[in-house]
Backbone:
């Protein structure tokens, strides 16, 4: 799929950019990617729980329930990520050293890990927006938002920032891509939630008439 292709290209470009700063940089960035792949899978898992609820109620014209489910999922995912990130933040070096106990690797991975800890708190909005649009048949919006994080934003950033900021540029590419994806996803999600309110009002008015 397009999403997987962009993900693979992004990973390849990340390794190429990190390789300029030695094997420790490649190892450090790989470790951070693996840790956050697990954390993101938790957020995605919560988001996937929204899909059957949203799709059923949208098809049944129970639009207020779709909105309630999306908001509840958003809150639940955020609360869960706050707990996970708090644990990870206070055990950052320990987590990194579980993969490779090398001071040079830790020196690269630690800043990237902390930047990503902050950025991952934006994921609930990104995940809920994507899962909601998938559930209600808005494939175009869902595909676009899914491609933003690892493609539309990440690929240009990984090609530009390392040349401007050096190793720090490599470390901040993913958090900045996440922040930009959040900025794009939020208006999409808010506009759709307002649309659901209007559709629900219309259904109520139709039922009363």
Residues:
């Amino acid at each position: 799929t397009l999403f997987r292709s962009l993900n693979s290209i992004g990973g390849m470009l990340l390794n190429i950019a990190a390789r300029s700063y030695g094997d420790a940089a490649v190892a450090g960035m790989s470790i951070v990617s693996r840790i956050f792949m697990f954390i993101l899978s938790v957020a995605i898992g919560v988001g996937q729980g929204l899909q059957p609820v949203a799709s059923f109620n949208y098809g049944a014209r129970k639009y207020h329930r779709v909105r309630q489910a999306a908001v509840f999922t958003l809150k639940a995912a955020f609360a869960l990520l706050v707990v996970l990130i708090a644990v990870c933040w206070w055990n950052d070096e320990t987590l990194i050293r579980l993969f490779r106990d090398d001071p040079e690797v830790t020196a690269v991975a630690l800043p990237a890990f902390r930047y990503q800890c902050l950025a991952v708190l934006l994921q609930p909005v990104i995940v809920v927006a994507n899962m909601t649009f998938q559930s209600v048949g808005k494939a175009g919006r869902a595909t676009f938002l899914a491609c933003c994080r690892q493609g539309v934003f990440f690929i240009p950033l990984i090609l530009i920032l390392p040349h401007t900021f050096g190793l720090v540029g490599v470390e901040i590419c993913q958090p900045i891509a996440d922040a930009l994806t959040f900025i794009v996803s939020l208006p999409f999600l808010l506009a759709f939630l307002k649309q659901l309110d209007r559709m629900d009002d219309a259904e109520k008015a139709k039922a009363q008439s």
In short: The mean pLDDT is 92. Residues 167-208 form the longest helix (42 residues). Residues 93 and 205 are 58 Å apart (CA to CA). The two ends are 46 Å apart (CA to CA).
